[in-house]
Design brief:
Blueprint: H1 6-15, E1 21-22, E2 34-41, E3 47-53, E4 62-67, E5 72-79, E6 84-90, E7 98-102, E8 109-116, E9 125-133, H2 140-165, H3 171-177, H4 186-191, H5 206-223, H6 246-267, H7 272-294, H8 313-330, H9 348-351, H10 354-373, H11 402-411, H12 422-425, H13 436-458, H14 463-485, H15 503-526, H16 536-539, H17 542-552, H18 569-591
Parallel strand pairs: 2-8
Antiparallel strand pairs: 1-5, 2-5, 3-4, 3-6, 6-7, 8-9
Helix pairs in contact: 2-3, 5-6, 5-15, 5-17, 5-18, 6-8, 6-13, 7-8, 8-13, 10-13, 13-15, 14-15
Length: 598
Amino acid sequence: MEIYSLKHIFWFLLLATGRCETALDSETALKMDEALLTVQNQMSYGLQILYTSDYCYKCLYQPLVSVGHGPGNVSAVVRTPFTLTLKVNPMNSNSTLCSLSHLFEEAGHYSLWVRPGDADLAFNVTCFIQVDQFPHDTYLPLLVAVLILTLLAFLWVSVPLLYRCSFMPKLRKCICCGESRYSMNREEAISGAPMDQGQPKSSRLKSLDMFRGFSLTIMVFVNYGGGGYWFFQHAPWNGLTVADLVMPWFVFIIGTSVMLAFSSMRRKGVTRLQLLRKLTWRTVVLMLIGFCFINYSPRDGLLSWSWLRIPGVLQRLAFTYYVLSIMQTVSSSREIPPKEVRWWSPVQDVVLYWPEWLFMALLEVAWLCITFLLPVPNCPTGYLGAGGIGDNGLYPNCTGGAAAYIDRWLLGDNIYWYPTCKAMYHTTQPFDPEGVLGTINSIVMGFIGMQAGKIFLFFRKMNSSIMIRFIIWAIILGILAAILSKCTRDEGFIPVNKNLWSLSYVACMGCMSFVLLGLMYFVIDIKGWWSGQPFIYPGMNSIFVYVGHSLLGFYFPFSWEMRFQDSHWEQLFQSLWGTALWIIIAYLLYRKRFFLKI
């Protein structure tokens, strides 16, 4: 969901891969997530050092550096995010003298010693890694940032409470006045009308705004670089990082919002034709915004035809919203059932919507059939790998399997040429993470979010029932994800993969979304322990913050050209600074009662 320039995207990909590059000498200036490895050859013949990242699934070894006959040494720069496996071969030979794995650390200097062994054999060697210069503490900047943010959060809560308490004669009154009187409901914010402190009367839940704002804040942070840490970048292929969580959360929220909003509009007497006009207009505007700003560059202007890309994040979100909204528009209005108990009452939020469930089942069957049965030229049927040097290099041009094949067939070259797997897997084919086939599962993810909205509607003012059903859905989806992935990153029936929006990925994210929304609903709407600040502010102006941070992300004061690139300190500060500025902007817009709506 990022619109960084190709240069920045490629750099972020390199940060996440553990890729190695040769260096000219041992005095080479190391950058963030780099270490220096010097190969000390004590053998009487030349050596070739190969490497592979342990994160790269069944990847072919790649050449790192060659060194002549000993004694002699050659240095190379290695990447530090992931454990590397090194293999030492005699020059121009496939025989392996030794192999060892090591997790190199940032700014460390290491020596790989290759010495003759004790036995009198031609290829009997001893290999070991020695630390010559101790590395930096890579996670110290992150730890300091967490402590500072924790302190700020404590001051945010305690200072206003102490200020109010100073005017209260009794401690009990002091505690009571600490309860938040802030309303996160947009209608209340605009009209000034008081809200019932129990169940919110509006379909716009406080916790839902909070969830949206929390997701958006994380998205802004990771789009601004995430401090350069690999787990704040997208996973190279299978697996999950923090950056992979955000978009499905948004899709889940869209589904929940559609259910609540359409229920509210129907109660107000809005006709189907009015609904159709409104949702069509909103879909078109979102698609145009996404198409324009994702293809924006300072050089080419609003539309960068030199690297035009048709799919995109807002385009997928808009299409998902359109399908879910159409489904709600054409379906018959379903009132909350009367109080009498029927055999299907515990699952009334499912039974009454059986046509929609049937439609979703057909969509998922279509995804499974296309993914696993569609013949792809020169590729195995049902291939889900990254291609390139992965899978022992057997399928170098099969990145993404059927998903990429359909995108190339429909869109040609107007898709993403710098996928997250490119640097680690050395792929040569384009692959778009917002492609056509993955949109099917995006709709399914939104439908899971709609299920949360149905629970809120059908069990209004029954908080225990709402929480129980959230837990049940989280368990069901979690079990499904565990079975499909076999609780592994790469060995499952259907691995968890954000690039493909695999079924296991949707199930995993659905489970997590139910857990998070349930927790927020319990803390904010039921108990009232937290008002959701400061995440509520960007949550109520999500379109403005999303488009704004994407267009202005490379301009001062949101970012600047970094001078200290040998550690995470400045990069992390810049990412947090840019994120904090957008929270402040969203807060100021909230104070001005400005809410950008489409």
